[in-house]
């Protein structure tokens, strides 16, 4: 059985004080969980967040990292820096990184390799845009995103990969993929991995859904057989909402 994961991607929200406040609210609101719970605050608040959550079952992840080990990359953060503050999970390939910061599949493949080399776990995001779904290309797009960034990996690396299917048209729009649409794509992703690797790997990989998950729709989405939890944006910024979504992941 795959254990569910609920991860909050805080994006560029919450200053230092607000971060401390939300973490304290989350600790009160989430006393126990069947699912693994992760939050991803901004870089500047990561170390302090990790410190505040020491001993708690809520874990901390980074929203991004650079592929190089160190060097002249002004403004960037390495895997080693993250590990040195106790952060060993990183979100890569988010659609906002792809859209606004020009991250493409080949760059992401390098980031994936760097994170794995550093012994990190990756939450790898991908998903089609609205036009691609409208024209029926969504399966092809998702397959090529996976192939280009991940299918060079050795089978053994897959235990460090969590997938997050986030259809771009459902992110921050209030429009959620229906539970059936999510299930259909998640099953397709598993089938694609089974074809490329093995049934074991396909069945073992955790696949999260992301895009306008809220307390009101989380339970139904998470009840689908191939949906193993969620990557939550807006609703992860409100402790009561995030707690309700965590409670829906059983
Ligand atoms: O991008 C997301 C999580 O990474 C989803 O964002 P929303 O939950 O705000 O739609």
UniProtKB/TrEMBL annotation:
The record's family statement is: Belongs to the triosephosphate isomerase family.
Does tRNA processing show up as a keyword for this record?
Answer: no
Signal peptide, first to last residue: none
Top-rank taxon, per record: Bacteria
Q: Which UniProt keywords apply?
A: Cytoplasm, Gluconeogenesis, Glycolysis, Isomerase
Active site (catalytic residues): 94, 166
What is the name of this protein? Triosephosphate isomerase
HAMAP family annotated for this entry? TIM_B (MF_00147_B)
Q: Which lineage is the organism of this entry classified under, starting from the top rank?
A: Bacteria, Pseudomonadati, Bacteroidota, Flavobacteriia, Flavobacteriales
One MF term from GO for this chain? isomerase activity
- Which top EC class applies here? isomerase
Q: Which Gene3D superfamilies match?
A: Aldolase class I (3.20.20.70)
Catalysed transformations (reactions): D-glyceraldehyde 3-phosphate = dihydroxyacetone phosphate
Task performed by this protein: Involved in the gluconeogenesis. Catalyzes stereospecifically the conversion of dihydroxyacetone phosphate (DHAP) to D-glyceraldehyde-3-phosphate (G3P).
Q: What is its main location?
A: cytoplasm
| Residues annotated as transmembrane | none
Coiled-coil spans are: none
Q: Which residues bind substrate?
A: 9-11, 172, 212, 233-234
The protein's matches in Pfam families, at most eight in alphabetical order, are given as: TIM
């Amino acid at each position: 059985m795959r254990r569910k994961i609920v991860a909050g991607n805080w994006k560029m929200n919450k200053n230092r004080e607000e971060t401390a406040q939300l973490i304290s609210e989350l600790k009160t609101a989430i006393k126990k969980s069947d699912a693994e719970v992760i939050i991803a605050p901004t870089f500047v608040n990561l170390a302090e967040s990790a410190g505040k959550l020491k001993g708690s079952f809520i874990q901390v992840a980074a929203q991004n990292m650079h592929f190089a080990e160190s060097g002249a990359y002004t403004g960037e953060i390495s895997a080693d820096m993250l590990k040195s503050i106790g952060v060993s999970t990183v979100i890569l390939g988010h659609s906002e990184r792809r859209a606004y910061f020009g991250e493409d599949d080949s760059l992401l493949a390098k980031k994936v390799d760097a994170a794995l080399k550093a012994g990190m776990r990756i939450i790898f995001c991908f998903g089609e845009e609205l036009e691609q779904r409208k024209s029926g290309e969504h399966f092809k797009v998702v397959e090529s995103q996976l192939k280009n960034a991940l299918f060079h990996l050795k089978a053994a690396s897959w235990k460090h990969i969590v997938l997050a299917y986030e259809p771009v048209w459902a992110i921050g729009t209030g429009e959620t993929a229906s539970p059936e649409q999510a299930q259909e794509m998640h099953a397709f992703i598993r089938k694609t991995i089974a074809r490329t690797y093995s049934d074991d790997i396909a069945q073992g990989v955790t696949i999260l859904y992301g895009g306008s998950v809220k307390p009101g729709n989380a339970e139904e989405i998470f009840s689908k057989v191939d949906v193993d939890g969620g990557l939550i944006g807006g609703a992860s910024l409100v402790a009561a909402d995030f707690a309700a979504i965590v409670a829906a992941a059983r």
